[in-house]
Structures are given as C-alpha cells and as structure tokens.
Amino acid sequence: MTKKLGGRSVSDIGLGTWGMGGWQSADKSEDSVCVDAIRYALSRGINVIDTAEMYGGGHTEEIVAKAIEGIPREDIYIISKVWNTNLHHDSLLKSARSSLRRLKTPYLDLYLIHWPNPSVPLRETIGAMEELLKEGLVRSIGVSNFDVEQLSDAMTVSKYTEIAANQVLYNYGARGPEKDIIPFCEKSGVEVISYTPILKGKVSGFSRLNEVAEKYSATAVQMALRYTMERSLPIPKSSSKSHIDALIEGSRIKLRKDDYEFLRS
Ligand SMILES: NC(=O)c1ccc[n+]([C@@H]2O[C@H](COP(=O)([O-])OP(=O)(O)OC[C@H]3O[C@@H](n4cnc5c(N)ncnc54)[C@H](OP(=O)(O)O)[C@@H]3O)[C@@H](O)[C@H]2O)c1
Questions:
Q1: What residues of the chain score a pLDDT lower than 70?
Q2: Which residue's C-alpha comes closest to atom 33 of ligand 1?
Q3: Is the CB of 201 inside a 6 Å radius of any atom of ligand 1?
C-alpha cells in the first residue's frame, strides 16, 4: 500500500532512525547492523527513511548515506529535520547543506522543523526553507511537534508552497492528537507522520490492543502500528530484520471497521 507525502507516492510506513549511530552524539559500534537494517527495510519496500541532523550528532545521517549507496535516489524518500536552535535564516541554510553532505544526496524529499522555537520568527524559518525549495535542495517542507496554532501560523507564512506534513507523537497510548491536530491536518491537507508509533515496543498494558491483536493472530506491537496507520504515516524504528518483518506484516493487517472502532472507544 502507498500514501501521498509531499506530492509523492510512498510506502505506507517509514523507518525511523533515532538511536541508530548514537543518541545525542555519535556511537559507531553498531553501524553495520544499522546500515543492514535500513537496506533490508528498503529491499522490503519501505522507502521512507526518517532522520535528523540531531540524531547521533549527525552520524545517523551518515549511516543512512551508507545504506542508500547504489540505490536510485528516486526510489527513496528521505526526511530530515533541522534542530530548533538552527532556525534563523543563515543557520538553517547551513544545517540543510550539512545534512545533504552527510547524507551524500543532492536533495531531501521532505525537510522538517524538528521542534518549534518561539524566539525565532516562523516567517524567517519558513522563508529560508522556501529558498532551499527554489534551489532544488529540498522537494517539500514541513514541521514537527507543532500544535494547531503553530501549524496554522506556518501555513500562513509559507508563500510558495504548502506545509506537506506535521510529524507528531501519536500512538495507541498517546491519542491526544486525535482530538485536535489530526482533524486539523486532515482538513488542511497536511499529512500526519506519527513518531514513536509502537510505544518503543512497550504495549503490553493495553487490554483492547491485546484482545484485537489476538483475533488477528498478530502481536500487540503489530496492532499498535496498524492502529496509527488509520490516520497517519507511522515511522517505527528498528535495527532488527525480524522486527522489520513483523512491522511490515503488521502494516498489512486488514483491520475491520468494527475492530478499529472498538480500539478507538
Ligand atoms: N520528530 C520528533 O520529535 C521525533 C521524536 C522521536 C522519534 N522520532 C522519529 O520516530 C521514529 C520512531 O520513534 P521511536 O524510535 O521513538 O519509537 P518506536 O518506533 O515506537 O519504537 C522503537 C523501538 O521499538 C523496538 N521495535 C521495533 N520493532 C519492534 C517489534 N516488531 N517488536 C518489538 N519491538 C520492536 C525497536 O527495537 P529494535 O531496533 O531492536 O527493533 C526500538 O527499541 C524515530 O526513530 C525517529 O525517526 C521523531
């Protein structure tokens, strides 16, 4: 199955990379495992890779670069994010170029503001992102962790393009976005990308999830992933091939409407 993201048709789940190659700073000890995992996910049809300049102090983007080596660029959809201390015009342009250099790619498919920063005018940040668009260095722009008010401000100040996506914390245990930001995005044509969609694998405490999962001979993790797909494009992270297999299998569950409603209730 596919979804539309920034005008492109992409896989209906993506792969997260937070923790691959370190957290706030680089840790190179598991590089080959992470590269293999990303390659494996791509070979299995996941073509959205989510990363950020902040991950592993930049090293995660280098891991992604290794993983995509030799794969036609058009076959992959790369999301990266600018950290919220780099939202002034010049810093943002510098961040974007550094991400492109680490990723060894001529463009990003989607460039996101990682977190809002009220001390930097949104107009300045979005203006810089639109310069990147015009230069062909990014193909679409978006935001992350923006509430309704912040998103609508971003939509107002973007002159040349649409805000393609808002990446938010959304999972079976964090369903607040269903009340406000998801309906707003649906109405405005902004794709919702859900992060931490499988609650880091810690889903055992949800009885409804377990009950419905059992009915489909699935695991609660798979059902949690499938649940978020109903109203978002989830980007679970995994460095394990067997987990990636399980995630893909979960994404393919044909969830009946009544079971979805039961999970929602
Ligand atoms: N925009 C933002 O502010 C923001 C914030 C947080 C995250 N993100 C993005 O969203 C991505 C996903 O979020 P996340 O990494 O926080 O959490 P997550 O995807 O909910 O969970 C990742 C954890 O689940 C485990 N896992 C994966 N598949 C599994 C399976 N089938 N069964 C059991 N456990 C499984 C992984 O371990 P293994 O690796 O061992 O499989 C990993 O420890 C991030 O990697 C990042 O790209 C964005």
A1: none
A2: 201
A3: yes
Distance 196 CA to ligand 1 centre (A): 5
DSSP state of 203: -
CB 28 near ligand 1, within 6 Å = no
Q: Is 23 helix (H, G, I), strand (E, B) or coil?
A: coil
Query: What is the 17 CA–ligand 1 centroid distance (Å)?
Result: 8
Q: Is 6 helix (H, G, I), strand (E, B) or coil?
A: coil
Given a contact cutoff of 8 angstroms between Cβ atoms, the answer to whether 99 and 53 are in contact is yes
CA of 101: how far to CAs of 1, 19, 38, 105, 108, in Å? 31, 20, 19, 7, 11
Q: What span, in angstroms and rounded, lies between the C-alpha atoms of 91 and 73?
A: 26
Q: Indicate the pTM of the whole model.
A: 0.98
Residues with a known catalytic role: 55
* Helices H / strands E in the chain, number of each: 10, 10
Span from the CA of 65 to the centroid of ligand 1 (angstroms):
20
Burial class from Cβ neighbours inside 10 Å (0-12, 13-18, 19+) for residue 136 reads exposed
6, 105, 107, 134 from 74: Cα distances, Å: 14, 11, 10, 19
Query: Residue 33: phi, psi to the nearest 5?
Result: -65, -40
Per-residue pLDDT at 1 = 84
Buried b (16+ CB within 10 A) or exposed e, 160-169: ebebbbbbbe
Q: Say whether domain 2-203+229-253 belongs to CATH 3.20.20.100.
A: yes
Q: Identify the residue whose C-alpha is closest to ligand 1 atom 4.
A: 195
